[in-house]
Amino acid sequence: MPVIKAMREIERGTAEIIDRERIETLVRNYYEKGEPYRVKLGLDPTAPDLHLGHTVILQKLAAFQQHGAIVQLLIGDFTAMIGDPTGKSETRKVLDRETVRRNAETYQEQAFKILDPEKTELMFNSTWLDALGADGLIQLTTQYNVARMLERDDFEKR
């Protein structure tokens, strides 16, 4: 019975669930065996505050937490400085490390008004991306050619 109730709460307000059976298995394993599972959200702190749209996903993650999930909140402090154009029609302004740090602190404070900090693993992508350095990033870019990058929608729309 708790699995059915949990799934109703998790499904409430969703337009589509990609792998419902997998989620139900994870929830069932939590209730029957005490096995927690993880769900992830990645946010690039490119603005001083989270926006209203973020609250929708944070509330859904809080529902997962109520039913055994550990939320992995990945702060894209490294990627926020790059100016990633994902989903945008123009490039994002490049931010300095201090601005990104301040934004990330605000994101954490605001996210933890909805998420349970005790059931959240906070991570920063600079932990592994800083270690790459310029040489590592250049090496990564050699894995993609310009034609492949231009195939992406966000480049095409610019």
Give a summary of the structure in a few sentences.
The protein is an alpha/beta fold and 158 residues long.
Defining traits:
single chain; alpha/beta; Rossmann fold; 2 domains; three-stranded parallel β-sheet; 8 helices; 3 strands; 48% helix; EC 6.1.1.1; aa-tRNA-synth_I_CS; aminoacyl-trna synthetase; ATP-binding; ligase
Note down, in words, how this protein is organized.
There is one protein chain. This protein has 158 residues and is α/β, with parallel strands linked by helices. The chain folds into 2 domains: 1-35, no CATH class; 37-156, HUPs (Rossmann fold), CATH 3.40.50. 48% of the residues lie in helices and 12% in strands. The protein has helices spanning 2-11, 20-33, 52-66, 97-111, 126-129, 133-141, 146-150, 153-156, and strands at residues 37-43, 69-75, 120-124. A 3-stranded parallel beta sheet has the order 1-2-3. The longest helix has 15 residues, at 52-66. The mean pLDDT is 88.
Radius of gyration, in Å, reads 18 Å
Q: How much helix is in the residues? A: 40-55%
Oligomer: single chain
* Dominant shape: globular
Structural class: alpha/beta
Major β-sheet profile: 3 strands, parallel
Enzyme class: ligase
Family: Belongs to the class-I aminoacyl-tRNA synthetase family.
GO biological process, one term: tyrosyl-tRNA aminoacylation
EC number: 6.1.1.1
Question: What are the SSEs and their pairings?
Answer:
Elements: H1 2-11, H2 20-33, E1 37-43, H3 52-66, E2 69-75, H4 97-111, E3 120-124, H5 126-129, H6 133-141, H7 146-150, H8 153-156
Parallel strand pairs: 1-2, 2-3
Helix pairs in contact: 1-2
